């Protein structure tokens, strides 16, 4: 039946019929792939199975690296300077004073990129070197994944990942069935069933496999995960056999609960659907970098204006003084020479002033980020011993973005949850058993009451129902008679948890045949005949089986969601109220609940119903609706047995982590491929959803209704739209498809950002990326995406920052991410500590780098007023070039690596501190230009105080007067002293390295100056510096100025800091003072919180009065009652109906080994 439906679906998709004549084909050669099976080499050469998620290869490194580096405006600028310096007679600073530093900077950046990309190559190699069993030349051989070829036949065993996209031939299960887990692709937790073709399901050994020869014709590689069209032509079969998605095993999926399978490789490497849904590694640029680039453009404009002004001023000075100074203009003759002279003068000033833009900025920033990344890697608090996974920064370019995140997009399965279901509590006949506070179910009271309590009959029915009403298949792998040795195969993790729990209390389901199940009830074997299975669906929200008991009674066992079971109970059930209270308790603890009921059927009643059921199940039209209607007739007047509570085990500390993230002003969006009910239940477990919130659920089936609902909700929010509200939004994947339409997109975004939490269900990988892109492009906010599966790669690469959970569902997400961690809880420290520290440190590094360059090099402009705008330099050319490399390199390093605003414990305790960096208070246009103007102010004081000091007096007692270079070296010394002390003034904390960096930088100039003054003529460099240190150090004016001028320069900064820290303290500064005083800052942080809680509560009350729950039974609208997530994770509309699936199994038959 399942196979016939698969064939029918295939033929409905194929536009032209497949003809038995092999010369006639339905696909053009250019639109199909032909693969030979067991017939030697392929006629067509296909790509290899090697995958790569790295940014570079040996061939592409240089062009890609240069492209990325010269996207930065500063590097383009300095490349132009290098070119201009090669023009003879133009450069006042020599030909190589920019080329050498720029080359050094690019080499350092290249080394950093190589080191980071080598890590990606190693991770790719881990995947490419996995081993798999391949059938070649009549023998099984082990080979690595990267050597798997199209047309190869592979054998995989339980828990193996598929190395490529395969066509299922056969398996060790009945009728070629296998179970696969696709959570790595679509996020769904339940197992899915795939079935090989009947014509190949008999191939169970190598001998039979050798005889299998033919060809596969299929569509070209594409990214459609859920569609496939092809044909299998076997030499021993006269007609082509259609293939569809029911026979396809996709790379990234995992074989589960299946002994072994044979599969033929049809797509490999980057042709697999998984890889085609992935995109190339994007080149991400941080917000700080973008702002910096824009300001560099403004500085460039100012530089051009200064050059124009200096050129015009120089020409004006020459014109005014040409009569007094006869030599001016002798080398200028014709008008053409005049314009050439003006052009060269402009280039001279352009080269002279070019260092207003710091050439060392990029290498300083890259080095700081590189070391910051190692701080993340070395953080022991983010090491996960369970998976032996440390935190890892796969790129260092985005460290500061971690401190500005406002939206987190999270996967559910494997990210928030472990995908482990544990039976925790139950309620039987109004009595609660177990506790949510213990790791496992405590069965002592239940077993005690089973023996001698008045409710022992209800307990027996309860456990019998759980042991028989399911689709689980037992397997005795050790082939013993002991029922405790049985292991279970289950497509639903919830059913697996329930059956396993019954096994632990001694009610063991250990055998299944097509017509019966056998349980061992505490030592006694009982056989139940399975008469009918009434399947679960998301509409029915329940599953029932009709069984004949060992006492020849006919019973209906039913389990399902509380609302559907309660409304089908007998009217006089007295225990319903107690059970409802227990359900409330289970839901409060975040458990997935099921209600259990049963009824005894008379033979006549059952026979009459069976006639109607058979008619409905064979109907041509509306079969599913008729079957559901007939099933509903018999699922009435149930006797309530009780309820179960299953914990969908969360990752450690997930609720606490989410609460902290919310307190930090971060909005959480959960994007999952799982069902709505499952996602909502996890939302409650994680505390993302509460009954105190305004819970909005959107589940529409067309564009018109979606558009109407979105507009109505937006109108009801009124003035609260796009503001912080205590509300949540849950939206289904189909509705989301319409919500992302151009006509709905704006309303959907407004509604979503008005909610504290958004949960999107049944979301495809493409939709995940689209949602992230929508928020990223429509809001001025930093986004972060976190996930662990291949279905999360798109959103991880789209978001500003991508974080992969390592060691849960493969490494695809980790390989595509920017940062990897072992568990979700480590995200808080990654953001709050490393993010805040990196952001604040990097902002200071950038601002300080511009400050120190402007402070020194703008003095060339002041000096131009005294040299007739001739382009004469104030400082020696090589001291200009190494100013950033030697004398002022260490202070920004100290700030960027060791400056600390608050300690780790404080930031982790008070997430509100994160809001300061999130709101970009440390780096914006206003702050940038404030620092630049401050640098100009400092340069004015430094230059004109030094100039004035020597203007009216001689520098030496013997009457000797210093020249321009003498003045320049004095000012240079004062500048080094001032900018180093400025670094200390801006540091939040002083460490030993800070002292070494500041005082060591000052000392390095004095040492260099003393040595450099005597290198000529030993080395042919700087003859004008000969003996200069002796002249400068021997004058008392120098030492007096060294004491007076830097202090005068920084006095205004010191006064400003004192006033600001006294009267206008930031929260960060107040917390720092509390830390120094060893006081608890709790009261301080709480008092400084904006009073939004009361306003949000008021808006919530107002919104609840405006939103009215629809009277129709649709789920779309406002949820105003406590939600009980029910524990079902079955695959719906699968390859094989659940009834047929379990009837395929006979556990008394030994499974083939597949050898």
Explain how this protein is built.
Its main location: membrane. It is a multi-pass membrane protein. Belongs to the cation transport ATPase (P-type) (TC 3.A.3) family. Type IV subfamily. Among the domains are: 148-278, Calcium-transporting ATPase, cytoplasmic transduction domain A, CATH 2.70.150; 398-416 and 654-823, HAD superfamily/HAD-like (Rossmann fold), CATH 3.40.50; 418-649, Calcium-transporting ATPase, cytoplasmic domain N (3-Layer(aba) Sandwich); 854-908 and 925-1078, no CATH class. The chain has 40 helices and 34 strands. It is of the alpha+beta class. It is elongated, with a radius of gyration of 37 Å.
Summarize the structure.
This protein is of the alpha+beta class and 1155 residues long.
Task: Set out the fold topology.
Layout: H1 2-13, E1 32-37, H2 61-69, H3 73-85, H4 99-128, E2 131-136, E3 139-144, E4 153-157, E5 165-171, E6 177-181, H5 183-186, E7 192-195, H6 206-210, E8 214-219, E9 229-234, E10 241-244, E11 248-249, E12 254-256, E13 260-267, H7 273-276, H8 287-321, H9 335-353, H10 361-377, E14 392-393, E15 405-410, E16 417-428, E17 431-434, H11 444-452, H12 456-468, E18 473-475, E19 487-489, H13 493-504, E20 507-513, E21 516-521, E22 524-534, E23 542-548, E24 554-560, H14 562-566, H15 576-588, E25 592-601, H16 603-617, H17 623-634, E26 639-650, H18 654-663, E27 667-671, H19 676-685, E28 694-698, H20 703-717, E29 727-731, H21 733-739, H22 745-753, E30 757-760, H23 765-778, E31 782-787, H24 793-798, E32 801-805, H25 812-816, E33 819-821, H26 826-857, H27 859-864, H28 877-887, H29 890-898, H30 904-909, H31 914-918, H32 925-951, H33 964-986, H34 992-1012, H35 1028-1033, H36 1036-1063, H37 1067-1076, H38 1082-1087, H39 1092-1106, E34 1117-1119, H40 1138-1143
Parallel strand pairs: 15-27, 15-31, 27-30, 28-29, 29-30, 31-32, 32-33
Antiparallel strand pairs: 1-8, 2-3, 2-4, 4-13, 5-11, 5-13, 6-7, 6-12, 8-9, 9-10, 14-33, 16-17, 16-26, 18-19, 20-21, 21-22, 22-23, 23-24, 24-25, 25-26, 28-34
């Amino acid at each position: 039946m399942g196979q016939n439906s698969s064939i029918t679906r295939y033929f409905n998709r194929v536009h032209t019929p497949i003809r038995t004549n092999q010369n006639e084909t339905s696909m053009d050669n250019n639109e199909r792939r032909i693969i030979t099976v067991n017939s030697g080499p392929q006629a067509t050469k296909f790509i290899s199975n090697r995958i790569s998620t790295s940014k570079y290869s040996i061939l592409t490194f240089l062009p890609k690296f240069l492209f990325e580096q010269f996207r930065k405006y500063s590097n383009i600028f300095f490349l132009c300077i290098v070119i201009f310096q090669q023009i003879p007679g133009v450069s006042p600073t020599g030909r190589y004073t920019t080329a050498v530093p720029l080359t050094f900077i690019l080499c350092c950046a290249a080394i950093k990129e190589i080191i980071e990309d080598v890590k990606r190559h190693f991770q790719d190699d881990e995947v490419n070197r996995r081993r798999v069993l391949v059938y070649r030349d009549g023998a099984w051989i082990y080979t690595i994944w990267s050597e798997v070829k199209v047309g190869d036949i592979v054998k995989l065993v339980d828990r193996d990942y598929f190395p490529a996209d395969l066509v299922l031939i056969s398996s060790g299960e009945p009728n070629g069935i296998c179970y696969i887990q696709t959570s790595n692709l679509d996020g769904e937790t339940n197992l899915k069933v795939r079935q090989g073709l009947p014509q190949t399901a008999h191939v169970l050994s190598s001998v039979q496999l050798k005889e299998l020869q033919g060809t596969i014709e299929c569509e070209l590689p594409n990214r459609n995960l859920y569609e496939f069209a092809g044909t299998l032509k076997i030499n021993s079969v006269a007609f082509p056999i259609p293939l569809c998605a029911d026979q396809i095993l996709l790379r990234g999926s995992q074989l589960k609960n299946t002994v072994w399978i044979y599969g033929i490789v049809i797509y490999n490497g980057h042709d697999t659907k998984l890889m085609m849904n992935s995109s190339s590694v994007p080149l991400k640029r941080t917000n700080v970098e973008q702002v910096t680039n824009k300001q560099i453009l403004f500085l460039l404009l100012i530089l051009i204006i200064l050059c124009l002004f200096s050129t015009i001023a120089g020409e004006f000075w020459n014109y005014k003084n040409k009569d007094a100074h006869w030599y001016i203009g002798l080398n200028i003759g014709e008008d053409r020479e005049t314009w050439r002279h003006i052009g060269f003068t402009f280039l001279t000033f352009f080269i002279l002033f070019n260092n207003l833009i710091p050439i060392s900025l990029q290498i300083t920033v890259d080095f700081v980020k590189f070391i910051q990344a190692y701080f993340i890697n070395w953080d022991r608090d983010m090491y996960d011993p369970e998976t032996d996974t440390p935190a890892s920064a796969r790129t260092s370019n985005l460290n500061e973005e971690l401190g500005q995140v406002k939206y987190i997009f999270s996967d559910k399965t494997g990210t928030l949850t472990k995908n482990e279901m544990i039976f925790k509590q139950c309620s039987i006949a109004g009595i609660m058993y177990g506790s949510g506070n213990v790791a496992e179910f405590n069965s002592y009271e239940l077993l005690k009451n089973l023996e001698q309590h008045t409710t022992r009959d209800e307990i027996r029915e309860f456990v019998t129902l759980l042991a028989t009403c399911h689709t689980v298949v037992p397997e005795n792998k050790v082939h013993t008679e002991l029922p405790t040795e049985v292991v279970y195969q289950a497509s639903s993790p919830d059913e697996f948890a329930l059956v396993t729990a019954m096994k632990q209390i001694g009610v063991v389901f250990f055998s299944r045949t097509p017509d019966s199940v056998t349980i061992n009830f505490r030592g006694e074997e009982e056989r139940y005949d399975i008469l009918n299975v009434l399947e679960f669906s998301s509409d029915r929200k329940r599953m029932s089986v009709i069984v004949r008991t060992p006492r020849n009674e006919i019973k209906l066992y039913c389990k399902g969601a509380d609302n559907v079971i309660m409304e089908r109970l007998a009217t006089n059930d007295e225990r319903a109220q107690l059970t409802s209270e227990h359900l409330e308790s289970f839901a409060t603890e975040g458990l997935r609940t099921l209600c259990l009921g049963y009824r005894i059927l008379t033979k006549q009643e059952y026979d009459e119903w069976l006639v109607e059921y058979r008619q409905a199940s064979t109907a041509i039209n509306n079969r599913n609706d008729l079957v559901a209607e007939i099933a509903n007739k018999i699922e009435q007047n149930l006797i309530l047995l009780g309820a179960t509570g299953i914990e969908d085990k969360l990752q450690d500390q997930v609720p606490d982590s989410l609460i902290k993230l919310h307190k930090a002003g971060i909005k959480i969006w959960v994007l999952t491929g799982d069902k709505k009910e499952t996602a909502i239940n996890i939302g409650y477990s994680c505390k993302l959803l509460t009954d105190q919130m305004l819970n909005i659920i959107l589940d529409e089936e067309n564009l018109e209704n979606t558009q109407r609902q979105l507009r109505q909700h937006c109108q009801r929010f009124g003035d609260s739209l796009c503001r912080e509200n205590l509300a949540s939004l849950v939206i289904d994947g189909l509705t989301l498809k319409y919500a992302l339409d151009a006509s709905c997109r704006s309303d959907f975004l407004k509604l979503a950002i008005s909610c504290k939490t958004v949960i999107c269900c049944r979301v495809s990988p493409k939709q995940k990326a689209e949602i992230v892109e929508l928020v990223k492009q429509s809001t001025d906010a930093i986004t972060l995406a976190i996930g662990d599966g291949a279905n999360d790669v798109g959103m991880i690469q789209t978001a500003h920052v991508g974080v992969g959970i390592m060691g849960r569902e493969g490494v695809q997400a980790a390989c595509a991410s920017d940062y990897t961690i072992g568990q979700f809880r480590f995200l808080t420290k990654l953001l709050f500590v490393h993010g805040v520290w990196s952001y604040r440190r990097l902002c200071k590094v950038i601002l300080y780098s511009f400050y120190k360059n402007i402070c020194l090099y703008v003095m060339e402009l002041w000096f131009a007023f005294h040299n007739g705008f001739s382009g004469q330099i104030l400082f020696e050319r090589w001291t200009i070039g190494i100013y950033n490399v030697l004398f002022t390199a260490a202070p920004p390093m100290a700030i960027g690596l060791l400056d600390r605003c608050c300690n780790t414990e404080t930031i982790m305790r008070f997430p509100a501190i994160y809001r300061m960096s999130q709101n970009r208070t440390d780096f914006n246009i206003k702050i940038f230009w404030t620092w630049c103007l401050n640098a100009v102010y400092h340069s004015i004081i430094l230059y004109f105080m030094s100039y004035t000091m020597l203007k009216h007096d001689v520098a030496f007692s013997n009457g000797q007067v210093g020249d321009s270079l003498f003045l320049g070296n004095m000012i240079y010394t004062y500048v080094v002293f001032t900018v180093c002390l400025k670094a200390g003034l801006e540091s939040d904390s002083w460490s030993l390295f800070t002292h070494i960096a500041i005082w060591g930088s000052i000392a390095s100039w004095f040492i260099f100056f003393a040595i450099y003054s005597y290198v000529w003529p030993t080395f042919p460099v700087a003859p004008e510096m000969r003996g200069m240190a002796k002249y400068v150090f021997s004058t008392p004016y120098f030492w007096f100025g060294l004491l007076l001028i830097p202090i005068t320069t920084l006095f205004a900064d010191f006064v400003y800091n004192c006033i600001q820290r006294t009267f206008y303290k930031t929260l960060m500064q107040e917390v720092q003072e509390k830390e120094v005083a060893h006081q608890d800052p709790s009261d301080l942080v709480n008092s400084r919180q904006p009073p939004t809680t009361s306003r949000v509560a008021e808006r919530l009350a107002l919104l609840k009065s405006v939103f009215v729950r629809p009277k129709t039974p649709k789920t779309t609208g406002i949820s105003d009652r406590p939600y009980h997530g029910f524990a079902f994770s079955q695959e719906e509309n699968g390859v094989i109906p659940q009834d047929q699936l379990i009837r395929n199994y006979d556990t008394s038959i030994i499974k083939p080994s597949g050898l």
